[in-house]
Amino acid sequence: QVQLGESGGGLVQAGGSLTLSCAASERTFSSYAMGWFRRAPGKEREFVAAISGSGRMADYVDSVKGRFTISRDNAKKVMYLQMNSLKPEDTAIYSCAAGPYVSRESRHYGYWGQGTQVTVSS
Fold it and tell me: How far apart are CA 42 and CA 45, in angstroms?
């Protein structure tokens, strides 16, 4: 079983920054692509970013390009999402996921963390 746990969420003012972390229990962590998804109240879950197992390839939804950076440290078995220039519309529960390859589709990921709340105030 792969266990994932997010941390780093919180309340921040618009224009501020937060870094989310996702720690994995999987001993073959580097073989998994990892992704971040978010869900705002009353809305569908949305793809945010994903990164390949090696960390060489990354993908982002257009709305966060240039503001968010996904990265991973395979030695520490941790994935990160550095979020800069945060906007109120970024407010959501952010979840990390592990899957066989980089994808924008949540159904392609087999393992999920519990989520962490990010709230951006005006």
Answer: 10
Q: Residue 63: helix, strand or coil by DSSP?
A: helix
DSSP assignment of 1-45:
---EEEE--EEEETT--EEEEEEE--TTGGGSEEEEEEE-TTS--
What does the pLDDT read at residue 50? Answer: 98
Q: Give the pLDDT of residue 83.
A: 98
Distances from the Cα of 116 to the Cα of 10, 31, 53, 79, angstroms: 8, 24, 22, 14
Amino acid at 12: V
**Neighbour count for residue 76 (Cβ, 10 Å):** 12
Rg of the Cα atoms in the chain: 13
Query: Which single residue is written with the structure tokens 């266990």?
Result: 3
